[in-house]
Amino acid sequence: MDLVFLLYVLFFCSFLFTVWKWFDLKRDLDCYILDYQCYKPSDDRMVDTELCGKIIKRNKTLGLSEYKFLLKAIVSSGIGEETYAPRIMFSGHEENPTLSDGIVEMEEFFHDSVGKLLSRLGVSPQEIDVLVVNVSMLASVPSLAARIMNHFKLRDDVKVFNLTGMGCSASLISVDVVRNILKSYKNVYALVVTSESLSPNWYAGNDRSMILANCLFRSGGCAMMLTNKRALKNKAMFKLKCLVRTHHGARDESYNCCIQTEDDQGRPGFHLGKNLPKSATRAFVDNLREISPKILPVRELLRFMVVSLIKKLRGNPGKAAAGGPMKAAVNFRTGIEHFCIHTGGKAVIDGIGYSLDLTEYDLEPARMTLHRFGNTSASSLWYVLAYMEAKKRLKKGHRVLMISFGAGFKCNSAVWEVMRDLNAEGNVWKDFIANYPPESIANPFMEKYGWIQHEDPATFKMPD
Fold first, then answer.
1. Do the bridges between strand 83-84 and strand 130-135 make them parallel or antiparallel, or are there none, so unpaired?
2. CATH classification for the domain delimited by 28-237+449-454, as one of 3.40.1190.10, 3.40.50.150, 3.40.47.10, 3.30.2130.10
3. Can you give the pTM of this predicted structure?
4. Percent of the chain with pLDDT over 90
5. CA angle 45, 50, 56 (to 5 degrees)
6. Which residue of 167, 273, 322, 359 pairs with 257 in a disulfide if CB–CB is 3.0 to 4.6 A?
7. Rounded Cα distance, 252 and 407, in Å
């Protein structure tokens, strides 16, 4: 009898130990953002209307039709006069960039943002266990990640990942890389560095599909520290709830809509195809279809099922026009308080706003970020998040949905839970957030260059 009792006790203890280990392991799977630092270049790199006009004039391949196209694109872009460009644009040598120009541009960002982040957290570079760097359009040897290691003197055994070619959605891919590493290692500090190198990628030709990228992209970047340390849970800013990646690279139409290439004259640039909206919509819908069950309450999912069934019985599926945005059949506000949208352009923000039935309050962070910083590629999401923080919108328990698009074609999304009320300490917006939103975000480019629209192509000549 004693032996049987002892076996029961041993079995029960073994069961309790197994359950404890399972919960213990599950807690270590959590991924937190401790802090992040968006980059604000120096004011001498600010691009106002006058400088923008000078840069355009330097391109001698442009004709009247191209000038009119650029005028319309810039005025309707949603970008203001206080965005930033790399130093090469101010020297007038953008048509002949060197590898050094791209590296110097990146190192300015690395040294500033990573240094400030580590200082504010009180974390030594020697404590970093994982480093993930994503800069899509600059590959150097040694890698940019190796340059960060060398400058900050990281440990020899740090796990390093250097991502290129991932496009504007690369920062969430970097977060996904970290999330998977944290599943296998405890008590990890992971540094994610995200930016884009514009110096070597200025397009100097007259192909409209490639000129457009010059109008939208601006300098920026973000460094963030992630961890799974339980002891730091109460100090964390955000906790990752879920992350979904959608990639349509197997579809030729999606693959070719957003691609780095050369024009007929051999000039390198970034092609944005006419089928980009259609490819983006398709990827967006597929991504929403996967993430919705993970973030929405059961009552909203049940309501969606009932509404869908009724529409099907009535023969009204509610399809969107070809290539146009589609309204989501679910109310995302039932599971989400804030929407962090990639600032790919005014049309991108408007399209997502329409699809998710968002208010101007929801879209304000993305619109203001586009106006103040432009499209900073993969780092743009974090400027949008910083705007929400600077406006003191982010309260403990709130959930933030991040949505980003990128070449390939990709749509990546993530949901973060706010871990504490945030006070915007060290925020990139802190010195000018009181001025936002401004009364008007109109671009004055039309006022200075609108006369181009009335010029005669036969006699047109751009003034020096």
1. unpaired
2. 3.40.47.10
3. 0.90
4. 59
5. 90
6. 273
7. 12
